[in-house]
Amino acid sequence: MDEEYDVIVLGTGLKECILSGLLSVDGLKVLHMDRNDYYGGESTSLNLIQLWKRFRGNDKPPAHLGSSRDYNVDMIPKFMMANGTLVRVLIHTDVTKYLYFKAVDGSFVFNKGKVHKVPATDMEALKSPLMGLFEKRRARKFFIYVQDYEESNPKTHEGMDLTRVTTRELIAKYGLDDNTIDFIGHALALHRDDRYLDEPALDTVKRMKLYAESLARFQGGSPYIYPLYGLGELPQAFARLSAVYGGTYMLNKPECKVEFDEEGKVCGVTSEGETARCKKVVCDPSYLPNKVRKVGRVARAICIMSHPIPNTNDSHSVQVILPQKQLGRRSDMYLFCCSYSHNVAPKGKFIAFVSSEAETDHPEIELRAGIDLLGPVDEIFYDVYDRYEPVNEPSLDNCFISTSYDATTHFESTVLDVLNMYTMITGKVLDLSVDLSAASAAEE
């Protein structure tokens, strides 16, 4: 342990594992430590016995739920955009060889008390029961504009500079009503609240294009993919990558204490009386609590069911977004459902999550709108966890701290945090111009 490293990474959450993999590939000498004896940190996957221990305080789940080891319940469940940044990172690092993915069946949005499929293209807009006839035509025109838009080709801009025109102004040009704006902003562009309406429209148009490209990629019912056996596979895959490139792993290291020199810069990490020296530390907020601040809380319900979510075309895996306006809330609510088809539960069982930024201290009341959409549940667990973000200045102390996971059930915001951290640590931008056609999803 008494060696010198370029970087010591503390915690084996997904963000930390991606970074240790990327930094190892870059040729840096990396030591990766975790106080736990398992991978994944906050984003770990639990079997049934572990789930009962964590939420019920005993390890005796009822026998009718099936074998404990057939369950892989992700603590931070998120789908990946098939054409999104995380998939580009996976391909860039060749981690795909350790993982199998499968398309997610459905993508839905809650509107006026009902669940509807999210229309993503001009053709789907015409079929959608979300809109009346005239609204469909207006929406179709808007979708065609977005599909044809190319940043580098002014002919496709229709005289608008989307770096200056706000989303609100762009949408006003097409005369779309509030309902349509709601599902475009929240279920297609995946904004978490309505602030985007007064920001430049380019970001929203790019997000919509990503959704449509991801949808086209596997011709499934949604733009999302998800690993077989759940997300717990991801941190381990990046850990393997790091090890291939010379990274060293130490789990079950208690009391990982970050050491600082007289200038306040990090100089090492001490555990069990030994100190490993380093130039930089990467960690999750729990390892440096005095360098982070609480920015919110996430409320969620974890449900085990014996059926798919009603009104989602019997989808075995699905995301449903409940926009804030539909619920009279300040932020969106998310339903995530996966099942035995992705090997995260035994045959016939489904795992659903309802999550949102917590606005009260009563998750069972606050999440009711989402839970009511699930139909009968076999078991339900409630949980609230705090979200933190770093307040330190990494250029002064060489500590690079990730932000806590948000309530969303997709990965786009998570990966942006990783890429920003990578740039701060290395001083360069990760080149993700990879050939996506080289990668393919796991077939049924």
From TrEMBL:
GO terms for molecular function: GTPase activator activity; Rab GDP-dissociation inhibitor activity. GO terms for biological process: protein transport; small GTPase-mediated signal transduction; vesicle-mediated transport. Keywords: GTPase activation. Gene3D superfamilies: FAD/NAD(P)-binding domain (3.50.50.60), Guanine Nucleotide Dissociation Inhibitor, domain 1 (1.10.405.10), Guanine Nucleotide Dissociation Inhibitor, domain 2 (3.30.519.10). GO terms for cellular component: apoplast; cytoplasm. InterPro entries: FAD/NAD-bd_sf, GDP_dissociation_inhibitor, RabGDI. It comes from the Eukaryota. Belongs to the Rab GDI family. Regulates the GDP/GTP exchange reaction of most RAB proteins by inhibiting the dissociation of GDP from them, and the subsequent binding of GTP. This is Guanosine nucleotide diphosphate dissociation inhibitor. It comes from Macleaya cordata (Five-seeded plume-poppy).
